[in-house]
Amino acid sequence: xxxxxxxxxxxxxxxxxxxxxxxxxxxxxxxxxxxxxxxxxxxxxxxxxxxxxxxxxxxxxxxxxxxxxxxxxxxxxxxxxxxxxxxxxxxxxxxxxxxxxxxxxxxxxxxxxxxxxxxxxxxxxxxxxxxxxxxxxxxxxxxxxxxxxxxxxxxxx
Amino acid sequence: xxxxxxxxxxxxxxxxxxxxxxxxxxxxxxxxxxxxxxxxxxxxxxxxxxxxxxxxxxxxxxxxxxxxxxxxxxxxxxxxxxxxxxxxxxxxxxxxxxxxxxxxxxxxxxxxxxxxxxxxxxxxxxxxxxxxxxxxxxxxxxxxxxxxxxxxxxxxxxxxxxxxxxxx
Lengths: 157, 168
Description:
Chain A is an alpha+beta fold.
């Protein structure tokens, strides 16, 4: 690599662009993105607070507990309203979160867009044939975005 | 190659989303440097499309050691293609495309960009491969899918034009 590397133009990819790439790699993923009418900090205070924020806007999550944390790597336990418990590995940093359990993967990303926030989210069931559920998941995500936006607006400081 | 990256490739090929996320962290700056230098304003779109292709085709990569060379070929071709297409009004505002300033002299970076803007995308691609990545003529010809003679003449023209514009 040339010593002049640093003076050549370079393109950085923000978290939402990166999440589009990750979702595109999973044919069964239900992906949506939307500009939320709240600043990045307010949105990420809810979305990035996995234990307290997630159960408030993710319809199927009753509780989420962080079991272990090592820098941006986490081990979490998710409990659904039906009482199903899932252990998941996760990566969490500002504007970026990916969680993976044996049968499901979830990702969310946020990037500031002026005073508002572009937010991207996917859910993927890691089983063959579950791509058929994608329209239902996308519909649910649409409503979850509305809840997240309301919570973020309330959280605006 | 970093053993860790080879492991990430194998994990990502098996559908491990956390491995995919880490592999993306490793590849995004590499692809961003190639696409930014060749596609300029369209660099972010080109880098995004490159990485979508890379991750969709990752299962076809048999040797993880070949990852970076394989990604470079896709990135260069995508960046040249994106340079020819009109810049799309993407939903995400484009940055100024300049490298992170850090210890780099921003005036020099800005001058390099100004000069590159005057070169055709094919010539920017050959400069990136030969002068930034240090590929020889045969390797550069393979990446670009052109004859060695074409690489030689394009490089000659690109360097001459770069020097001329640089000293203006």
